[in-house]
Design goal:
Helix content: 25-40%
CATH class: Alpha Beta
CATH topology: Alkaline Phosphatase, subunit A
Protein name: DUF1501 domain-containing protein
Pfam families: DUF1501
Strand content: 5-15%
InterPro entries: Alkaline_phosphatase_core_sf, DUF1501, TAT_signal
Amino acid sequence: MGQRKSPRSVGSRISRRSFVQAGSGLLGLSLPGLLAARQASAATTGRAKSVIVILLSGGLGQHDSFDMKPEATEGIRGEFRPIQTAVPGVHFCEHLPRLAARAQDLAVVRSMSHPEGNHLVAVHHVLTGRPSFPRGASDLDRVASRDDFPCYAAVVDHLRTRQEGIPNGVALPLKLIEGPLTWPGQDAGFLGPRHDPWQLRLDPNKPEARDDSLTLPEGLDAERLHRRRHLMTQSTAPVASDAFLDQQDAALAMLCNSRVGRALDPDQEDPRLVDRYGRHVFGRSLLIARRLVEIGVPVVQATMGIVQTWDTHVGNFPRLKDDLLPALDRAVSTLLDDLKARGLLDETLVIMLGEFGRTPRISQLTPGAVPGRDHWPAVFPAVFAGGGVVGGQVIGKSDKLGAYPVTKTFGPPDLAATVYRALGIDPATEIRDRLNRPLRLCTGEAIDPLYTTAEV
């Protein structure tokens, strides 16, 4: 590990107004969701200390990854061949050779399902365990709202007090906005912005770039910030609201926690390990995810690309073959190896899935277009590892076309229950919305075969 740079020298005095501006602009607004929670959690015995959710935003096709149908007709099976994994009788796509070699650490659920065929609604469902509320004439109107159900990280932040400057949730390198739309299901919803996960921003075109949310302005260091914050508390002048000051306090605690700053600097890693993850946004995101759980962040959402990277309506096979699957295979397999080597895999639940699958039948939207696959929520895969999960197994089964489950289905509520159980939170815990109505965290049941190998 490299040495932390010494704090910047203080070149001039800073006014109270300047401090408030620094706190609101650099600390408060760029670091939401870091307030200490005010409620105790209704806890169970958790299997994991942290959860990493790897979201393949846009939707990964089951036929082209973890549930191939080589006996189906060409118009369904597609161009890719299955390869034998390290588990006899289990096959993955030929473009996932590293994950195939690590199949003994993976549990693949092939019967995930829900009814939502729209990205906006499906992402909310998968990342909260709850369907979104209708708010407009169409699903395209269901952009992010403070009436949304909170995401996993926000619930953890709401239920569990955190004082030492480690955030309860981090999302990276998520681009929340594409065009005029803000995607729902990735913030605290009705719990309020104080519980939003911290959004790290990494430029997909410059994966070596750093997020500067923890960079102090010239002339400020942690000691000086503490002194100025103390002076503010002694002032008789009007001050901001308690909620705003609470947010400043939490942001200041995070700025002063050197472990957080070091976790966001993967250049301190052995360059050979960085190469193994891959010097691209997938690799850098998952390397930072490992560094964050290593310092105790309980929920990390790592989105592989921007909002529709995996939405392969056109050019499904070349896009997967030449770009998406190799980068994913490299980064996720290295993450698993890295967690295992550091003794973190048993206490970190890793989940990888898209918001839905892709159509069994290959489509061609326009004459001459490169064929693709469209949205298909009726069945899709989810991959689990670590956190007590029994690897080397396949749970659930789809029909011979890869169109519908033929065994027990599991949906977003069951995924949510699995996440909360893993973290030691009772899925029956009640939280209250903005109208003070009690709502159960999720209505599903944890996917127990992940831990028991029981047939479903």
